[in-house]
Amino acid sequence: xxxxxxxxxxxxxxxVQADNWSVPDLAIGQASLTQKVEHxxxxxxxxxxxVIRGQDKGEGFLLSSGILSQEGLHTITEKLKxxxxxxxxxxxxxxSPQGNPLGSIVRIRGFANADEAQKQxxxxxxxxxxxxxxxxxxxxxxxxGPYVISLLRVDLNQxxxxxxxxxxxxxxxxxxTVSEMVSRTEATAGINGGFFAFDNDVGDFGAPAGxxxxxxxxxxxxxxxxxxxxxxxxxxxxxxxFGHSVESRVWLQTDEKKIRADGLNRKTGKLLxxxxxxxxxxxxxxxxxxxxNDNEILIYDRNYGDRTPLQAGTELTxxxxxxxxxxxxxxxxxxxxxxxYIQLTGRQILPVSTGDKIAIYTEILIDGKAFxxxxxxxxxxxxxxxxxxxxxxxxxRNVQGWNPYPATDNVAGSQDDDNLGNVTDTGHREGFYEGWxxxxxxxxxxxxxxxxxxxxxVVYGRNPGVTEGATITExxxxxxxxxxxxxxxxxxxxxxMMVVNGNVTGPASDGSAREISDAVVFIPD
Length: 525
Prior knowledge:
The chain is mainly beta. It has a domain at 150-383 and 442-523. 12% of the residues lie in helices and 33% in strands. The chain is built from seven helices and 31 strands. The protein has helices at residues 2-10, 70-82, 114-126, 178-184, 397-400, 430-438, 472-481; strands spanning 35-43, 46-53, 61-68, 88-91, 104-111, 132-135, 147-155, 162-167, 189-192, 212-214, 217-220, 226-232, 239-253, 258-261, 263-264, 270-274, 285-292, 297-300, 314-318, 324-328, 340-344, 359-366, 369-370, 377-381, 385-387, 443-448, 453-459, 486-489, 498-500, 503-504, 518-523. The strands form six sheets. Strands 10, 11, 12, 13, 14, 22, 23 and 24 form an eight-stranded antiparallel beta sheet that branches. A seven-stranded antiparallel beta sheet has the order 1-2-7-27-26-28-25. It has a five-stranded antiparallel beta sheet with strand order 8-31-9-29-30, covered by helices on one side. The chain starts with a helix and ends with a strand. Mean pLDDT is 93; it is low at 1-18 and 415-423.
């Protein structure tokens, strides 16, 4: 795999002389690891850096219990003592965003390979002791790596192209690889974008899971209080800004009253990551948990696809001027370009008749202030915030979807595509937090400095001995090392990918490139 990455880099042809900027210590793994850097100028104001940080020192594999309560810790350690199995009881590598200890983890070390570790895990499981096999270097503890890091530096003061976000196949519920989207848009480079429905059980496969604005139009409602990235191409140069809390509201105005709708262009009854107007069991953002609502008002247009969802309920068809031209008790109509469709499920009713008019209004708030996107603005959401006003603020994770202690305990588990839904014996989400935030995984992030230099970073991972990934805090430290003022984590895991000059820059953790919902691309002028 290392040879493959090197070959891809050699294939790039330098276009301009390298500038005087050099890659700083990127702060992943142990302190002051060596960094092998290869620099490839791409266009005026755009440079690519391939970094191999650290080296494989054969840290091997271990078994982990995940986060335990004191009672769980006592039970497991007593059984291990009785079986004469050596273990260590350790605190989580970081505290919770609230600042309190997350709990203890029991680890059993000394396995040279995954098969050896799995054999021991199977034996322990038969004795009622559940342990997970983990690559020691991916556990979030100090490690020598290695870490394959792709870094794209774009100086917006010099760059002649545009930064854009593109939807897979230009519709809400579709999926493409980053390479396909980069090729289709003739971009020089691109990275994966925001979170999305990874299968049809959690939503419409490929649909963005959170706010999506294209050309100033709100196409998908927000997962409220998540961070947001705003790309503004209204001027000669692209402009990139961030907010750490976005909200959206959708309204229907009839002759008689104003009614709030639940959302836009999504599968009814399912809201991945929660954070909805009436989502249950909670309206707060909860990452990788699917909230529900059997009583919804949802709006659809051509951006959703060819047909509205087929389900029980009532469907209204609106002409371009807002006139109700059809009311049906059989939703699932073919979508016409110049029409909008309103679906009512459960107990929802809308007291209108054909010939009446309904106006649709949308509102967006960023950090509590009204925001009106212009026609050249796009917006995506992911998270958590990595850097805000030059600082790393873990407390923001509490409201953005990564609170280990959400308001309701009915979200203790998760539905995720990377099997991180650890339910601890505490009944909260400490296990998920430890697995998703504190362990090393493939990660993608983007940030901007005060002087308008955009950094996009991909840390490839889940490839033992080749590249181990990064924790969320390590990604924040990486971005801060680059002197960004604001930065946001994007989708990670098997989604993490950078493409430069038509070539992927590192190994996909799934073995092949994942199809995703959207990409951030850099298109030459």
